[in-house]
Design a protein that fits this description.
By secondary structure, this protein is mainly alpha-helical. It has helices at residues 2-16, 19-46, 49-77, 79-102, 107-119, 124-138, 143-173, 178-197, 206-209, 211-215, 223-252, 259-276, 286-300, 302-305, 310-320, 324-338, 344-373, 375-395, 404-407, 425-428. It has one domain (2-204, 221-400): MFS general substrate transporter like domains (Growth Hormone, Chain: A, Up-down Bundle), CATH 1.20.1250. The chain is 78% helix and 0% strand.
Length: 430
C-alpha cells in the first residue's frame, strides 16, 4: 500500500508539474502568517489581547465575506485574472494594515484595515484544489487520485500553518512581529502572481458558457454540502479557541514568543497525518472518516483544558494536531464529490470560508474569555465545538452518487498546460 500511495503522489505531481505546488504553497503561506500573527501584532502594539482578537476576527471575517465571491468569480472568469488582481490588492492591503498597527491607530481603523486585508485574500489554497482536481480527473484519475490531490493540498495548508506561525513567532521573539507581515506582503505579490500566470491558470469559464446559463440559473447544491460546511464551521471554532488558548497560556507562563512555535508543533503532526490520508482504503468511506475524525478531535482536545505548563502544552498539542488534517481533507473531499463541476471553485472557497468563519468569530470571543477566565476557558470552548461537529457528522446522511455526466469536468482550454500523464483507475487502486 505504501508503494501505491507514493505512486499516487508521483502521478499527481507529474500531472501538475513540480512548480505549481511550490507556488501554491508559498502563495498561501501569507494567509497563515497574517491570521495567526494579527493577534500577536495587535496585542503587542495595543497592549490588549482582547483588541488583538477583535482585529484578527475582523480580518478573518473579511476573508469569509468575500472568499466565496472570489471562487464564484474564478468559476465565471477563470482563475488567472481573478488571482492576479487579488494577489496584488492583498499585498497592498497587508502593507497598509501593518503600518496602521505599528503606528498605533485607533481600534476602529485597525478593524477596517483588517477587513480589507482579509477581503482581498486571493484564496490560493481552495482555488488550487479547484484547479488540480479537474486536471487529474480529466487525465482519467479516479476518486482515489482526487483524494490524493486533496491530501497533498491539505498537507500544504498544514505546513503553511506550521511555517507561518513559526516565522511570526521568531519575529516576535526578535521583538518585531511586523517584519513577518512585510514578508507576507512580498510573498503574496510574487508567488500569487506566479500562481495566476502558471499555464494551468487558464481554467475553463464553465459558468459563462455551460448548461447553467441555458437553464437560466446555477445548478443547485445538495443538502449534504451545507451539512459539511456546518461541520467545518465548528472545526474552525475549535481552531480559533485553541489559538486564543495557546496565546493566553504562553502569556500566563511569561513566554508569549513561544505561541507561534507551539502552534507550529501542532501543525507538524497535522501535516504528517494529512500525507498518510492517501493510504486510507477506499472502502473506509468518507462519511465514516468524517465521524471518526470529529470524534477524535472532541476527545483529544479535552486535555488542553487542564494543561498548565509549557512542556505539557507542547506534548498535548502535538498529539491533538493529528486530528486537523483528516477533518479538513474529508470535508473538502465531501465538498468535491457533492458540488457541480460548474461551481467547484465556489464550493471549495465556501468550504474554506466556513472553516475560517468559525475561527474568526471565536478569536474575538475566546480572546475575551481567556482574559477573564484563563486559557482553560478558551480550550473548553474549543472542546465543546468539536463535540458539536461530531454530532453533525453523526446525524449526516448519505447522498446519492453524483451523476456520471457531471463527474468528469471539461478539459482545460487548449492554452492551458496539458496533463503530463494519463491516469487509469487501476494505477491508483490500493
Amino acid at each position: 500500500m505504501a508503494q501505491n500511495t507514493r505512486d499516487a503522489y508521483r502521478t499527481v505531481l507529474r500531472t501538475t508539474g513540480a512548480l505549481l505546488p511550490v507556488l501554491s504553497f508559498f502563495g498561501r503561506l501569507p494567509v497563515a502568517m497574517i491570521q495567526f500573527g494579527s493577534v500577536l501584532l495587535v496585542t503587542e502594539t495595543s497592549g490588549s489581547l482582547a483588541t488583538g482578537g477583535i482585529v484578527a476576527c475582523a480580518l478573518a471575517l473579511g476573508q469569509v465575506g468575500l472568499g466565496p465571491f472570489v471562487g464564484r468569480l474564478a468559476d465565471r472568469r477563470g482563475q488567472r485574472p481573478v488571482v492576479l488582481a487579488f494577489s496584488l490588492a492583498n499585498a497592498a492591503a497587508i502593507t497598509a494594515y501593518t503600518l496602521g498597527a505599528v503606528a498605533g491607530l485607533p481600534t476602529p481603523v485597525l478593524v477596517a484595515l483588517g477587513v480589507l486585508a482579509g477581503a482581498t485574500i486571493p484564496g490560493i489554497g481552495p482555488l488550487a484544489r479547484a484547479r488540480v482536481v479537474p486536471l487529474v480527473r480529466a487525465a482519467g484519475g479516479d476518486d482515489r487520485l482526487a483524494g490524493t490531490v486533496l491530501s497533498l493540498e491539505s498537507t500544504m495548508d498544514e505546513l503553511s500553518f506550521v511555517l507561518g506561525p513559526a516565522l511570526v513567532g521568531l519575529a516576535s521573539v526578535a521583538g518585531r512581529p511586523a517584519y513577518a507581515f512585510g514578508a507576507a506582503a512580498l510573498l503574496v505579490a510574487v508567488c500569487g502572481t506566479a500562481f495566476a500566470l502558471h499555464p494551468t491558470g487558464r481554467t475553463p469559464k464553465a459558468a459563462a458558457e455551460g448548461p447553467t446559463r441555458a437553464r437560466g440559473g446555477r445548478p443547485r447544491l445538495p443538502r449534504s454540502v451545507y451539512v459539511v460546511r456546518a461541520g467545518l464551521l465548528f472545526l474552525g471554532v475549535l481552531l480559533g479557541a485553541c489559538g486564543a488558548g495557546i496565546t493566553a497560556l504562553t502569556e500566563e507562563l511569561g513566554q508569549p514568543g513561544q505561541a507561534g512555535l507551539v502552534y507550529a508543533a501542532m501543525g507538524v503532526m497535522s501535516a504528517v497525518a494529512g500525507l498518510s490520508m492517501a493510504a486510507v482504503p477506499e472502502r473506509f468511506g468518507l462519511l465514516a472518516r468524517w465521524r471518526v475524525a470529529t470524534a477524535a478531535a472532541a476527545l483529544l482536545s479535552l486535555p488542553l483544558v487542564w494543561t498548565d505548563s509549557l512542556a505539557g502544552l507542547y506534548v498535548v498539542v502535538t498529539f491533538f494536531g493529528a486530528v486537523y488534517a483528516p477533518n479538513l481533507i474529508t470535508g473538502f473531499a465531501l465538498t468535491e464529490r457533492g458540488v457541480p463541476r460548474e461551481r467547484l471553485a465556489e464550493g471549495m472557497t465556501f468550504a474554506a470560508s466556513a472553516f475560517v468563519g468559525g475561527q474568526a468569530v471565536t478569536l474575538a470571543v475566546a480572546g475575551r474569555l481567556a482574559e477573564s477566565h484563563g486559557a482553560g476557558a478558551a480550550f473548553a470552548l474549543g472542546s465543546a465545538a468539536a463535540a458539536v461537529a461530531f454530532v453533525i457528522a453523526l446525524i449526516a446522511r448519505h447522498e446519492p452518487p453524483r451523476p456520471e455526466a457531471s463527474a468528469q469536468p471539461p478539459r482545460p482550454e487548449a492554452s492551458a498546460q496539458p496533463p503530463r500523464a494519463v491516469v487509469t483507475p487501476d494505477a491508483a487502486a490500493p
